[in-house]
Design a protein that fits this description.
InterPro entries: CueR, DNA-bd_dom_put_sf, MerR-type_HTH_dom, MerR_fam, Tscrpt_reg_MerR_DNA-bd. By secondary structure, the protein is mainly alpha-helical. Helices cover 62% and strands 3% of the residues. The chain has helices spanning 12-19, 23-32, 50-64, 69-80, 86-120, 130-136, and strands at 39-40, 46-47. 12% of the residues are buried.
Length: 141
């Protein structure tokens, strides 16, 4: 299946546009090894094929779901290995869901604290401010 009518090769800007990733990030993913080094023209310009564009879309979707670069690297290896056990993929996704749940609980607690502080603040012309008072408190971690 072709991504565009011409099927490539694409320069970095075209590959970026086709995958909805910035050209800077395309180069970054290549530097990280998430995207293999691609062929270059005699003038040194990178040339991407539909395969690399598809990989960039995979990376972009993975980033959209909040996976870390290390997780994406592992997912890419599994995606490219047709003999992979799906249990390995599920483990990564399950661990990511657990991390998201923990982060959401942390954010909910922050929201609750801030809501309480906002409720306690009169928001008038007086200098008294429980929000600033709370921020200035020393708390043990």
């Amino acid at each position: 299946m072709r991504i565009t009518p011409n099927g490539g090769p694409y320069n970095v800007g075209e590959a970026a546009a086709l995958s909805n990733v910035s050209a800077k990030m395309v180069r970054h993913y290549e530097a990280l090894g998430l995207l293999p080094a691609v062929s270059r023209t005699d003038a040194g310009y990178r040339q991407y094929t539909d395969k690399e564009v598809h990989t960039l879309r995979f990376i972009r979707r993975s980033r959209d779901l909040g996976f870390s670069m290390a997780e994406i690297a592992e997912l890419l290896k599994l995606w490219q290995n047709r003999r992979r056990p799906s249990a390995s993929v599920k483990r990564i996704a399950t661990e990511h869901v657990a991390a998201l749940d923990a982060k959401m609980a942390e954010m909910a607690a922050m929201r609750k604290t801030l809501q309480h502080l906002v409720h306690c603040c009169n928001g008038d012309d007086r200098p008294d401010c429980p929000i600033l008072d709370e921020l200035a408190q020393e708390h043990s971690q």
